[in-house]
Amino acid sequence: MEIFIGLLIIAVGAFCQSSSYVPINKVKQWSWESYWLVQGVFAWLLFPLLGALLAIPAGHSLCELFAQANAFNVWMTILFGVLWGVGGLTFGLSMRYLGVALGQSIALGTCAALGTILGPVLLNVFFPELGALSALTAAVIIGVGVTLLGIAIIGVAGSMKASQLTDEEKKAAVKDFNFPKGILIALLSGLMSGCFNVGLEFGKDINFGSLTPDMYKTLPATLLVTLGGFLTNAIYCFYQNQKNHTWTDYGKGKVWGNNLLFCALAGALWYSQFFGLSLGKGFLTSSPTLTTLAFCILMALNVVFSNIWGIILKEWKGCSRQTIAVLIIGIIVLIASSFVPNLL
Predict the structure, then answer these.
(1) Does 323 score more than 80 pLDDT?
(2) Are 230 and 84 in contact (CB under 8 A)?
(3) How far apart are CA 98 and CA 300, in angstroms?
(4) Which phi and psi (to 5°) does residue 59 adopt?
(5) pLDDT tens digits for 277-293?
(6) pLDDT, tens only, 158-177
(7) Phi-psi region of 213 (alpha: psi -120 to 50; beta: other; left: phi over 0)
(8) Distance in angstroms (rounded) separating the CA atoms of residues 98 and 12
């Protein structure tokens, strides 16, 4: 029962993340770089900070935690957050050229596989005495393989879509649709986004041990990773503000109330995925396989819900029944990837 609750919590977080781009459409009179930075303040600073505070027992502080933690682990966690930030920037571009459904599918699928594998591998490079590679059991590898299979099937559906629709229909569904460019950017995004889980692996012991409930233990590390990602995104957004002369966006007082509300909502929905990941893993402790695969499961469910949004937003409108059938098969395989490993 606890495993089911854990997976359900992760699924709720995935649904929230996949919905986080909907409020952005309500932002008015701001350029991309301006609203991306403001929602990032909520998504990568404020809400992660509030989440991390839940891991701090009475009589202790967050500063105390970071001061007593292994400095190398803290800085490595932040470093991989900086690298993840690059993935976050290109993630937006992948959806620009492929749409919400296909863009998230390719990027998050790559992220799921690499994030799950690279975490224990790199941790083993620096701390071989921890035996981190032992987490990569046959069941875990099979789970990653099933996830990649589901992503590949959805990729086939995307390729079928690209070949069936006219240029006008593609532009109607996704304004800047460009399949070759989008695939390359989505793969780069997935590679760099996988660094998020690597950062979590380095920071998984940054907590107060038995004083911190299992469901909150990864929240301090999540804050460090998102802090690193915020630095990357802030530098790029400020550069774009300067390049595009969009500093005046921040002075448009009439839209601040509206834009702040929807940026905050987008940030809360986005952070929900990693808050849910931490809470969900607290219920998966009886299954080491699912604990290791939790990040992969989260990304797979993100893909499932992003494709549901893609259908709602009519990004697959005009495609043949065969294409839709392939898409649905891919979604079913991804859902199965959340349960198959635990049956092995």
Answers:
(1) yes
(2) no
(3) 18
(4) 90, 0
(5) 999 988 888 888 788 88
(6) 778 767 666 565 555 555 66
(7) beta
(8) 25
